[in-house]
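just leaving the lab so this will be short. below you get a single protein, a line of residues and a line of whole numbers that encode the local backbone shape. id like you to explain what the token line says about the fold, in plain words if possible. thanks a lot i owe you, the record is right below:

…
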Amino acid sequence: MKTFRPVYVREFKCDGKACYSRCCRDWKISVDEDTRQKYLNLPDDEREDFFRHVTDENSIRPTNSGACPFLNDELLCNLQLKRGEEFLPAVCQSFPRVTYKLDDETFLQAMTLTCPVAAIEILLRDEPITFETVDGVNARLVFDFTKKLSRPVKEFLFVQQKAIEILQRRDLSINRRLKRLCRIFGEKSVPVHFDSESNAAALAEIFGETYDAGLTVDKKTRLIESYLVARKNVLTQMYENFSTVAENWLVNEFVMRLYPCAFVGDDSFNCRVFVTTFRLAEFAAMLTALARGRLTVEILLEMLCALDDKLAHSTGGMEAIKAFAALHESEVFAALMLDD
């Protein structure tokens, strides 16, 4: 068996103190059957100490503060300290790694930006992200993608490689890379002129759905107006300071969600979802810069982690993006692809 992955997967080291053990708070942690059986075979006192924190639905019951009951004052996991990593629930052992089975012999592994330590490892690289193929599969939690893959595995990996090469073309602006990617994947609705007002209205709508902001018409109008006034200067500054962050985000997102096979639909539809998601990240970064009066790398990473959390744990945002991308003849979507 072989696993294709970015090198940062191998280099990642969990550090709960660096992120205040964010993944151990306010998330539902399921207890898989393998972990359940391991604890059932322990002595009575250890078995009871574990299962008194497990609900009837086989998830770990959080404390009143929302933290995992096994998280200690030093932000370390008592389960891992006492029994080792193999006694963690599969989701805890795997996170922030995401592992997909492509066929019986081929796997793909990446990492989610929901983890702040992973986000630093991925986004703050000066050199382009590189990849490796390793023997075996070092993961207990594996998502079976064999029935969702719309093309042979070798062809899928080849397509991913070619897309990554485009996204890492530093002789081109980010927007020109996206435009080229869209054309390769069959997207034809690329307009001659960029429509900033349609762009702003579309992004404000998706932003409201993603963050469940409940935007009134007045709030949405003010949001659009602020965006349009500051857009050119703020975006110019963002790309002067954070172009490699944008590139690394794009590469990680493309690999981690298995584009162009991420969602049901053809390559063109998946490409539109990909581009729209990036424009949402760009829009959120700009709003953050306006709200805080500046955009440091720390603020940007915090925002991107929060957005990834929203897209991973809330269906509203991604459904809004997919619904918008489905309007494949829309000049509104097409505007999201051009901004040079």
In short: The chain has 15 helices and five strands. Residues 1-147 form one domain. The longest strand covers residues 97-103.
